[in-house]
Amino acid sequence: MINQALAFILQNVTNLFLIALLLRVYMQWMRVPFQNPFSQFVVKFTDFAVKPARRVIPGLSGLDMATLVLAIALQFILTLALNWLSGFPFALVGASVLLGFGLIAVVALLTLMCYVLMGLVFVVAVLSLVNPYSPYMVVFDSLTRPVLSVFRRWIPLVGNVDLSPVVFFLVMQFVVAFPLTWLAMLARQLI
Asked: At residue 155, what are phi and psi to the nearest 5 degrees?
């Protein structure tokens, strides 16, 4: 019972930080302006870990590799910790399972990124209905415009209603349910 409570707390706290790291990578990749409260919060929330990592890991073609490597490493440690708390016999199997756990960590991070993108699209959809002139709309629109523009090319407006977020949700749910789940099952077989 205590192990389950610890796993719950560890997973939720770590996932919040992972979401912030993924948002930081994605915001820099999409060249979102960092002069707004949301971006400044994400930067200040993650700076304590990212600044030391940047001294060791350089960027690559405008991509914040230090933050990305930090997110992958943190997800890998979380995966190991959760399996240890659930009673996985690490002492018996040795280091041969690390590749499987590494793949599980990458799949979990990709799944989390899919959910982050879905959350961003949801926020944009709600803000466009409630308060389209919100100062946060600029940031969220900058983050979602590249992914939604793919769908907007093929899906026409229906009565001045943009259905691209709905199709985006369906595609992301498909990606999470089938290819990523298949990869996770493949990774579990390596353990």
From this structure: -110, 115
